[in-house]
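User: hey, got a sec? need ABC-type iron transporter, ATPase subunit folded
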Amino acid sequence: MVDVEVDGVTVAGILRGVTVSVGGGEVHGIVGPNGSGKSTTLRCVYRALQPTGGVVRLGGRPLAELTVRESAREMAALTQDSHVEFDFTVAEVVAMGRLPHQTGFDGETREDREICASALSRMDAAHLSGRSFLSLSGGERQRVLIARALAQEPNVLVLDEPTNHLDISHQLAVLALVRGLGITVLTVLHDLNLAAAYCDRLHVMDDGLVVVSGKPEDVLTPDVLLEVFRVKAHVVPHPVSGVPQLLFEHRL
Ligand SMILES: Nc1ncnc2c1ncn2[C@@H]1O[C@H](COP(=O)(O)OP(=O)(O)OP(=O)(O)O)[C@@H](O)[C@H]1O
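Assistant: Yep! Here you go:
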């Protein structure tokens, strides 16, 4: 199990000392209003951005000590900037997830192909394999990009709004699958009810800082919702699972 530590990370003008510790095998969510710094925090973890201060550690080792290839073998990311600009097929996009595991000359093996096929079918996207990625719908693209991250067989998964574009059935399926992987997960989620249901711990960000961290029931309180998100909410236990769920007061 590989843990992730975001330790006092600053990014000039955006993050003001963000600390998030994700224990090996745990699923942690980052929530917060628009512009609070969630994606920027993740970008520091998946190495798209170099923090101006603080350190990110993967399995206890500062990212700066790992080559990009070493960290890509450990960690996969679904990002807000996961663009595919050229007209690759779905199978080709998912096969990119295997690149960190291949050495210069050996190319794609049968095992690589099997891993990719399995990742696609777990994302309910096997039927899309031969399609042009650019011809897919938003939700289909999202599922293929998650399949690419799974094909990387990571020990750590970093997800920026994985449920974006997904219908409710696929939202629930993807989050259940992610939980069931048994690996370390750090995910940004906008849907607080899904965050409460699927995350072991939540970190609430506001204005470039983590303002509260803990178990969903300790974090998603009416006070926090009013102070951070500026909404009035009632917390009720889910009638089946018992996890805290939020009912928002409508603004009419
Ligand atoms: N490259 C950049 N240059 C200038 N400002 C930036 C840059 N990247 C992000 N920001 C600003 O930093 C703040 C935090 O952005 P970030 O994308 O991390 O927020 P977020 O919490 O993920 O928001 P959202 O919920 O809207 O996705 C925002 O005000 C954003 O405009």
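Quick note: The first helix runs from residue 38 to 45. Let me know if you need anything else on ABC-type iron transporter, ATPase subunit.
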